[in-house]
Every structure is written in structure tokens, then in C-alpha cells.
Specification:
Blueprint: H1 3-12, E1 15-21, E2 25-32, E3 37-45, H2 55-63, H3 70-92, E4 100-107, H4 109-116, E5 136-139, E6 152-155, H5 165-174, E7 182-187, E8 191-198, E9 201-208, E10 228-235, E11 238-243, E12 251-252, H6 254-266, H7 279-284, H8 289-292, E13 295-298, E14 301-307, E15 320-323, H9 324-347, E16 355-361, H10 370-375, E17 387-391, H11 393-403, H12 405-417, E18 419-420, H13 429-436
Helix pairs in contact: 5-11, 5-12, 9-13, 11-12
Length: 449
């Protein structure tokens, strides 16, 4: 092979990997840097879970006394997982690691700190100050990443203590900053991150929504996997459920909890305070005996049966129920998101009616029914056609940055100009949050069950 042919082949074999480091999952996307086309994608669990199930517990692990090696342990865990993803992606697509010349990374603020080896202590307590701001650039080798000699790594800029570069990526992917009128980007998870854009101004906040959206803290909660009840419908005195994998119901995932709450409100089984009515009260309200019979007391706590263990199509299992405590857990989670939105609206002197597009980001957002999310007050009441399930906006945005230096510059300008609203510092936040836990915006339909 001549020198010219060797140079031409090298120029034609340039690949890059875009990483979205999530608290639960690390996702890698392989791109052909010459054609700008995707070549593959792979997601694996974040092994840092062994050091804490959520962001705050991992931060506590990192800053623990006599835990000098803990930050390096967290960094090593995620870097090794990223290298596994790169190696597997390359092997699956016949690409040599020496052909990986570019890497771009985004993640929530804590994950970015762990990956970059930055001290996360400032993220543990209010005012939640990050150890660094802006983007971080360097050789892939300096970050410990497997790639070609001289390969570059770009860690996207975050916005604030708990509004990370995954949200910067999300704004880029949705074009939130370019849309006329007022628009919202909501990344619903344990830490709910919200950005409100209007009139060229962008303001962001984060809210501690808790684990209910991921099925945790729910009595029969589970991840969105086979057997999880992901949808609930109450109509004509009957309750029907949608189960992932068409399997026997085994538990309830986050989207199922949202559906259940909204449907129970509509059927009059719970009131605006979230209280589950007893059977006698339901019958006196005109709810059918068939539906009222699904309410029962268990250990001094009311619960509502969503699916009986006898099942359908010969699928047998346990009764799947939603309990009073589960409704309360959901109210706290949805209240945090609703309160965050309310505070941003107050800050920008807007009303819920002013909001046009509502982008729901993340894998979880794709499983939510817009009708249920609006009915339960999780997202502002809007024309349902304006609720956009945007998918993995973090992955899309970090891929854009991987492929373009101009997008990198846009990301840095955006992150620097997005205002951060620290909710913990606002005297009115607690009152707003307590009010948001109720279902006060729900307009109950006439009970026909």
C-alpha cells in the first residue's frame, strides 16, 4: 500500500463515541466522523450503583471520612465501563480502537465530576457548588479512555450544581433556545431537571423528585421491564392494565403509577388530597359496586387492586395493588416537578397558559401518557399535541457536539447563559411544593363507572 493510500484509508476511518453517563445507565453511541452517520449504540448499567443507588448516596460515599480512595474508585468504575462499551461497539462493527479519534461525554453534574476526577463535596450541601464550570477538554488518554493515540475527549459544560451537561445537551437537541414563545424541557427522574425558555431567556432548576418515577419506594414497584404494569385504564367499571412483555403482572413501574393515579382521580376513587375512599364512601358517591369492590384494607392501609392474581390468558400471579402510601409517594414526586415548573414561571413572570411546547426527556418520558401526566398535574395543562416525547435528548445533544466543533461552542455559550434558580434558597418554595402535592388542578369527569 502506497503512502497516499495509507493516508486516504486513515482519513476514511475516523470514528467517534458519544457517551451519556446516567446514574443508572451509561450509553455509548458510535459515529462515523467522515459521513456523520451513526454506526452503532450500546448501553450498560452504571457499576457505581455498588457505591450508592442514587446521586446523593454516591456523593456521600465519595466524601466519606477515611475514604481517600473512594473518588478514584467511582472514577475507575465508570471509566472501565465506558471502555467496555467502546471496545464492544468497535468489535461489533469491525472497527479498530486506533480508529476512534473523538470522544464526547455528557452526564448529570455528579456523574461528570466522578468521571473527570473532580471533588464532588460542593454538591452535597446547599448552595450545591460544582468544583468546576464550563467544558473540559483533553486527550482521551488523560481521562483513561481507550481510543487512538492523540484522540480527544470533550466533556460538555454543565449549568449548575444539580443541572448537568445532560441538560445542556437536551437544550441543544430540542432547540429549546430557538423556539418562539415559551417552552419547557423536563427530564423526569429521581432528580427532576427543568428548563423554561421564553423570549431568548432560559432558566433552569432541579428538584428532588425521589425514586417513585423509577418504581422505587412503591410497595410493588419495579423498573420498566418485563412484567411491569406500565399502563392503567378505568372505564365502565372495569380496570385494564398494560404489561411490558405481555407477561403476567409482577409489579408497577413509574408510568403505571402515573396512569393509576390519574385514572383513580377520574373515577372518584381518590380525592384531590390523594386519599383513597373506603368502599362504603365510594358506593355512596355512585361508584359501581364492581369498581368499589377493588378497594380494600390491608394492615390498616387502604389499597386498590389494579390486577387480580388470576390474571388473563392463563397468566397467574399475585394481585397488583396501589396503596395509600404509594399515592403519597407519587404526590411528593409529582409535587416536586410541578413546584419546580411553578417557580420557574414565577421567576419569568409567566402563567401555565403561556407555555406552548412541553418536551419530556429521557427514556422514562417515552412511557408516560400525556393525558395522565396532565391530569395528575405532573406537567402543565396544555394542548396535548404540544407535549413532545423527545426521547434521549442527552444522547442526541452529546452526539451533535461530538460531530461538530461549532456545536461545542454553542453548548458552552448556552451553559454560560442559562440562569439557574436555586429552589432551596427561595423562601416561597416550601409552600409551593406543599400545595403542588395535591391534585388541585384535576377536573374530575362525571363518574359513569
Amino acid at each position: 500500500m502506497t503512502l497516499t493510500e495509507t493516508v486516504a484509508k486513515a482519513a476514511a476511518s475516523r470514528y467517534g463515541v458519544a457517551f451519556d453517563i446516567g446514574t443508572t445507565t451509561a450509553a455509548g453511541m458510535l459515529w462515523d466522523m467522515v459521513s456523520g452517520k451513526p454506526a452503532g449504540a450500546l448501553a450498560k448499567s452504571n457499576p457505581q450503583r455498588a457505591c450508592g443507588a442514587d446521586v446523593m448516596s454516591r456523593i456521600a460515599f465519595a466524601v466519606r471520612e477515611n475514604g481517600e480512595d473512594n473518588p478514584e474508585k467511582l472514577r475507575g468504575l465508570i471509566v472501565r465501563r465506558m471502555n467496555e462499551i467502546t471496545t464492544e461497539l468497535s468489535g461489533n462493527h469491525g472497527i479498530d480502537l486506533k480508529d476512534i479519534h473523538e470522544i464526547a461525554v455528557c452526564g448529570n453534574t455528579a456523574m461528570s465530576h466522578f468521571f473527570a476526577g473532580k471533588d464532588p463535596a460542593g454538591l452535597a450541601l446547599s448552595p450545591f457548588r460544582p468544583a468546576y464550570t464550563g467544558a473540559l477538554c483533553g486527550s482521551a488518554a488523560s481521562f483513561g479512555l481507550a481510543a487512538a493515540d492523540g484522540a480527544r475527549c470533550y466533556l460538555m459544560p454543565g449549568i449548575a450544581g444539580h443541572v448537568g451537561s445532560d441538560i445542556t445537551a437536551g437544550v441543544l437537541a430540542t432547540g429549546l433556545h430557538r423556539i418562539d414563545g415559551a417552552s419547557l424541557l423536563i427530564d423526569i427522574g429521581t432528580n427532576g431537571e427543568i428548563v423554561l425558555a421564553a423570549g431568548g431567556r432560559l432558566t433552569a432548576c432541579s428538584t428532588a423528585a425521589g425514586p417513585a418515577f423509577e418504581g422505587a419506594s412503591i410497595a410493588q414497584g419495579m423498573r420498566a421491564e418485563e412484567g411491569a404494569v406500565e399502563a392503567v385504564k378505568i372505564s365502565g367499571g372495569e380496570v385494564s392494565v398494560g404489561v411490558i412483555g405481555d407477561a403476567a403482572p409482577a409489579g408497577l413501574c413509574g408510568s403505571g403509577v402515573i396512569d393509576a393515579a390519574a385514572e383513580m382521580l377520574g373515577a372518584g376513587i381518590i380525592d384531590e388530597t390523594g386519599k383513597i375512599f373506603d368502599r362504603g364512601s365510594l358506593l355512596s358517591k355512585g361508584v359501581s359496586a364492581k369498581l368499589a369492590s377493588r378497594v380494600r384494607e390491608n394492615g390498616g392501609e387502604m389499597e386498590f387492586v389494579l390486577a387480580y392474581g388470576g390474571g388473563e390468558k392463563g397468566k397467574k400471579g399475585k394481585d397488583i395493588v396501589i396503596r395509600q402510601k404509594d399515592i403519597r409517594e407519587f404526590q411528593m414526586a409529582k409535587g416536586a416537578i410541578e413546584a419546580g415548573v411553578t417557580m420557574l414561571l414565577r421567576e419569568m413572570k409567566l402563567r401555565p397558559a403561556d407555555i406552548g411546547n412541553v418536551f419530556l426527556a429521557g427514556a422514562f418520558g417515552n412511557h408516560i401518557r400525556a393525558e395522565s401526566a396532565v391530569a395528575a398535574g405532573l406537567i402543565p395543562a396544555a394542548d396535548l399535541s404540544n407535549v413532545i416525547f423527545a426521547g434521549n435528548t442527552a444522547g442526541a445533544g452529546v452526539s451533535m457536539a461530538l460531530l461538530s466543533d461549532e456545536v461545542k461552542r454553542q453548548a458552552e455559550a448556552l451553559a454560560a447563559n442559562i440562569e439557574h434558580l436555586e429552589l432551596a434558597a427561595r423562601a416561597d418554595f416550601q409552600d409551593v411544593y406543599i400545595a403542588a402535592m395535591n391534585f388541585r388542578h384535576y377536573r374530575r369527569a362525571r363518574v359513569t363507572a
